Amino acid sequence: MTLVHRAAHHRKRTRDGLAAVELAVVLPMLLIFIVGVWELGRMIEVQQLLCNAAREGARQASTGSKDVAGVKDVVVRYLQQNGISNVYSSDVLVLNLTDPGRSNPMTANQLDQWQVKVTLPFDRVRWIFLNQVTKKTSLIGSAHWLSTRDIPLVVNSDIPLQ
Fold first, then answer.
1. Burial 140-155 (b: 16+ CB within 10 A, else e)
2. How far apart are CA 52 and CA 141, in angstroms?
3. For the chain, what are the domain ranges?
4. pLDDT tens by residue, 98-146
5. What is the pTM of this model?
6. Which residues of 12-31 are buried (b: 16+ CB within 10 A; e: fewer)?
């Protein structure tokens, strides 16, 4: 074996384990990055569902056809149908911002402003159990809607009919 062949052979043997060492260093960082992106995607998905559920609840409140319990039920059912099963009616807040004294959507005046707010701790919906990262995070979905409840038509009976 010549001197050139020996040097090339010696150089090749010293690099045999380098790929394994690089993989051992890079793989944990890559896995942490992938898990973080996955969890962030879940957070965005749940946030969007909360906003949609709040909007649907506010729309129902604006019609005046459901009371507060009915509006909360609409929100909870919407979330359950979309895969968030551990949400409760106590997580939903229905407010008449125009006149807090009329808290029942069925007794609201036309153009009263309604707010439906859904607050959900991220601990209930996360996929990965990283307590240190998402321990105190709450997701909030909120929607405002004006009441479209019909004004009752009052007919004056004093007007003579012809």
1. ebebebebebeeeeee
2. 8
3. 16-146
4. 988 888 998 888 889 999 999 998 888 777 765 555 566 889 999 999 9
5. 0.74
6. eeeeeeeeeeeeeeeeeeee
